[in-house]
Specification:
Number of strands: 0
Helix content: over 70%
Subcellular location: Membrane
GO cellular component, one term: membrane
Family: Belongs to the TMEM120 family.
Number of helices: 9
Radius of gyration: 27 Å
Largest sheet: none
Main location: membrane
Pfam families: TMEM120A-B (PF07851)
Structural class: mainly alpha
Length: 330
């Protein structure tokens, strides 16, 4: 290519750049318009909810006064319920405020995902992230069962600290984007982060050596259960997408529909096995707390595993009747 050809290419590139400037100008204008439209939608959404609250309060006052509920009142209440559902769907298309935790970690960065396909992709990446980290944890746990090497143990525990810290951030982002994550499951991962941190600073003494094998077996078991959950939940994700069902950001067993009950019942015994394992660890650590060399980490971990085991069991037991009711109603 000689200088003449280079100059010709540059002239063509100048023309292309002007076209790029025009497209970018249109793009930035549309972005500003989108921001204005989002603000208008939020204003109208709040106005709808405010007026509906006035109507609802008036209906409640009439009910307290003993006014007979006729067909008009019944129809109005049904319409209000429908409108609430429609407003919830509209709200899902608008940006949301970050939770306090995300504001502390990320600041005021907007983490709302407005495109439906992008939401699916993010949730799918979340599930794959859990699967990959679970596989790594499984390999490290099995290695630690056969090799008594302190640096290898610390690598596994540090991986758990990083994993649960990252998990809490990702779940908070999913929550902003409409995921119906039960409060306990989020709290459970915060507690697990603390547990992993305590394990990281537990000195290598006789109580740790006695507990080490139990803990490694626990990590290996939980990793296998996590793989089973991934298989189940990834299937649910694609079925929801194919059916166009709502609540496509669900990530825990609470959020699934009655037609998925068969897969969930297959998973439940393994989940409860993990919860029993957590309670057993709490009991084993309680006994270890009386060891002459036991440090404060032992009773602290015992209480933490007891809390996690009870919380997981109670939350799942609350889910089962809800699932059975959905199955009967369907």
């Amino acid at each position: 290519m000689d200088i003449e050809e280079c100059l010709k290419e540059w002239d063509d590139l100048v023309t292309d750049y002007k076209r790029l400037e025009t497209i970018n100008k249109d793009y930035t204008t549309k972005l500003e318009e989108i921001g204005d439209l989002q603000a208008s939608c939020m204003k109208e959404l709040n106005h709808q909810r405010y007026r509906m609250s006035i109507i609802t309060s008036a209906l409640k006052r009439m009910e307290k006064k003993g006014v007979t509920k006729d067909e008009r009142v019944a129809n109005l209440e049904k319409e209000i319920m429908k409108r609430k559902a429609l407003l919830h769907e509209i709200e899902a298309t608008l940006p949301k405020q970050n939770s306090l935790y995300l504001k502390i970690i990320l600041g005021n960065v907007n983490v709302s995902i407005l495109n439906k396909n992008d939401k699916f992709k993010y949730k799918d990446e979340y599930e794959k992230f859990k699967l990959i980290l679970s596989a790594i944890a499984f390999v490290l746990a099995v290695a630690n069962l056969w090799i008594n090497f302190r640096p290898l143990q610390l690598i596994l525990i540090f991986l758990l600290v990083w994993y649960y810290c990252t998990l809490t951030i990702r779940e908070s982002i999913l929550k902003v984007n409409g995921s119906r994550i039960k409060g306990w499951w989020r709290l459970h991962h915060f507690i697990s982060t603390v547990v992993a941190g305590i394990l990281l600073i537990w000195p290598q003494n006789e109580p740790w050596n006695e507990f080490r094998h139990t803990f490694m077996w626990f990590i290996a078991y939980i990793s296998v259960v996590q793989y089973m959950q991934f298989r189940y939940q990834s299937g649910v994700l694609y079925r929801l997408k194919a059916l166009g069902a709502r609540h496509n950001m669900d990530i825990t067993i609470e959020g699934f529909h009655s037609w998925m009950w068969r897969g969930l019942s297959y998973l439940l015994p393994f989940l409860f096995g993990g919860y029993v394992f957590q309670l057993y660890i709490a009991y084993a650590l309680y006994n270890l707390s009386y060891h002459p060399e036991a440090t404060w980490q032992v009773p602290a971990l015992s209480m933490s595993f007891l809390l996690i085991g009870i919380g997981n069991t109670v939350t799942t037991l609350f889910v089962i009747p809800q699932k059975l009711n959905e199955q009967v109603q369907s």
